[in-house]
Design brief:
There is one protein chain. By secondary structure, the chain is mostly helical. It contains 29 helices and no strands.
Length: 517
């Protein structure tokens, strides 16, 4: 080190300077060693860490934890180990939703943040890893209603990524999470004045552009982040850009399609159900659960039961009951009891069974997410749905459109006894004729609902406006699409408000308009 060369110079100086000499040597050595030690930290996501990451995706959390401990003993300066360790906590909390685990694990975050903050500012992975950890904890906190802390961490993650992008503009991994934030920013329920004040901006097109750039970058090749980037691109196409067919086409060509982990299976299943592949969902999820019946991802049982219910299978309830008996989380409980109630009507025409499960719906679970809120709303209404309309709805949800349409036409005489049943019937006809691409007919049915002022506060009217907008958008009739998107936003439905309004905002964003323009 240069310190030792300097030492001869200091010895030759007046003895009065010896004390200064020692101080300078000490400081030089100290800061030299500090810099050297800081430079020793690095991020390397090598094959062994890739193997750990795959174990995490397969929910082998204990095995992954032991493997990371062993790697940390061999590579104590490799901060990629600290980053990947956070994935274990994230998947346990975000997927399993166990309150005790949340209380036990949330103390891990600050320790990991401190380790990474002590690394060199010259490493582009530093702010990237900090942002990823904070974003994962923000998402986990949302599951446990810690909204303020989640918001703070989301904003901190966003700032890290934006700063990193300015410092290292060629570091394409910045786009991984930025693409999600930018694609969502126009639709998240934050007032524009606040967005402008904190400097958050973006669009669906920007998010798509960023994730495409990442997928095409050489930097991403042979990294395990590639699978995440594929999932993000699929998510934006499916949920934000409203292009389920394109999302499925991409998914089928991606590594996710052949991946054996339950997270990839879940993503495939959600999209496949929307594009008419409900039978394949049942086949693939059934095969997975036969092979891994004790998987910690218990939601797959609910997903399978729901898919089988949409096909009106007589054993659909078995899988939903399996989910309820083993899931220790907070969400989907009320919705699961609602689906069991529907099963009793659609399969057994058992009104007493329906009422029993709806009573459980009221007393179990939490009314936080839209599915659970809607289930609780139905339970409180004490309204028992028409058997024929419910079957038509389930068949529609499973994309069995011709069967649903045939049932509605065959049972038309049942739905003119009272005005409410009459309007629900037209709503179901509108949905299925839209799915069958009979757009003119669908819009006529939707407008029957929209012109009935008594139903302005119903989700039927709000979604009718949204679906008219989507039809006009797909046909390139922008003015009509904008009219109906704004009509949707002006309605205040009794349920599904957040999701319906978010979809309308996404529609306006696709047309390069803001909700207030």
């Amino acid at each position: 080190m240069t310190t030792f060369y300097c030492q001869g110079f200091f010895i030759s100086v007046n003895v009065k300077l010896i004390h200064i000499q020692k101080t300078v040597i000490f400081l030089t050595l100290y800061f030299g060693l500090f810099t050297e030690n800081q430079a020793q930290t690095y991020f390397e996501y090598h094959d062994k860490i890739q193997k750990v990451y795959q174990d995490i995706l397969h929910f082998k959390f204990e095995e992954a934890g032991h493997a990371l401990d062993s790697l940390a003993a061999i590579e104590p300066q490799n901060l990629a180990i600290v980053h990947v360790e956070n994935y274990i906590d994230f998947y346990q909390l975000f997927i399993l939703e166990e309150t005790e685990a949340f209380a036990r694990l949330k103390g891990n975050k600050e320790q990991r943040i401190k380790q990474i903050e002590d690394s060199s500012d010259q490493d582009p992975y530093k702010l990237f890893a900090l942002a990823e950890i904070k974003l994962q904890w923000a998402l986990a906190r949302l599951k446990f209603e810690e909204y303020i802390k989640a918001g703070n961490e989301l904003y901190a993650a966003y700032q890290h990524l934006e700063t990193n992008k300015k410092r290292f503009p060629d570091f394409s991994l910045n786009n991984k999470s930025l693409s999600i934030i930018h694609s969502l920013v126009e639709t998240i329920p934050i007032p524009s004045v606040i967005k402008n004040w904190i400097g958050i901006s973006g669009s669906i097109n920007q998010g798509l552009s960023e994730i495409i750039q990442l997928l095409e970058s050489e930097e991403l090749s042979n990294q395990f982040f590639y699978q995440e980037a594929e999932a993000i691109y699929t998510y934006i196409l499916f949920y934000q850009a409203n292009q389920p067919t394109k999302a499925m086409e991409f998914l089928q060509l991606s590594s996710l399609y052949t991946a054996s982990d339950p997270v990839s299976l879940f993503l495939f299943s959600k999209i496949a159900q929307r594009v008419g592949q409900n039978d394949e969902v049942i086949e693939r999820v059934s095969q997975y659960l036969e092979k891994y019946p004790t998987t910690p991802f218990r939601y797959l049982y609910f997903l399978l039961g729901n898919a089988k219910l949409n096909r009106l299978d007589a054993d659909a309830d078995e899988y939903i009951l399996q989910f309820l008996s083993s899931f220790k989380g907070r969400h989907y409980i009320k919705e699961a009891y609602q689906k069991l109630a529907w099963f009793e009507i659609a399969i057994h025409n058992n009104m007493a069974g329906y009422k029993s499960y709806m009573n459980q719906c009221l007393n179990q679970g939490y009314a936080i997410i839209d599915g659970d809120l809607q289930a609780e709303h139905e339970a409180k209404s004490l309204h028992i749905p028409s058997t024929s309309l419910l079957k038509a709805r389930l068949l529609y949800d499973g994309c069995y459109y011709n069967q649903s349409y045939d049932l509605l036409i065959k049972k038309a005489h049942e739905f003119f006894l009272d005005e409410k049943t009459h309007l629900v019937y037209f709503y179901r006809l509108a949905r299925v004729t839209q799915a069958l691409s009979n757009y003119r007919e669908a819009i006529d049915y939707y407008n029957i609902i929209l012109t009935n002022e008594a139903y302005n506060n119903s989700y039927l009217s709000c979604n009718a406006a949204l679906q008219c907008a989507i039809i006009y958008e797909t046909q390139g009739q922008t003015d009509e699409a904008v009219h109906y998107f704004r009509k949707c936003l002006n309605l205040k439905p009794d349920k599904y408000k957040n999701s319906l309004h978010q979809k309308a905002k996404s529609g306006l964003a696709r047309l390069n308009l803001s909700p207030r323009q």
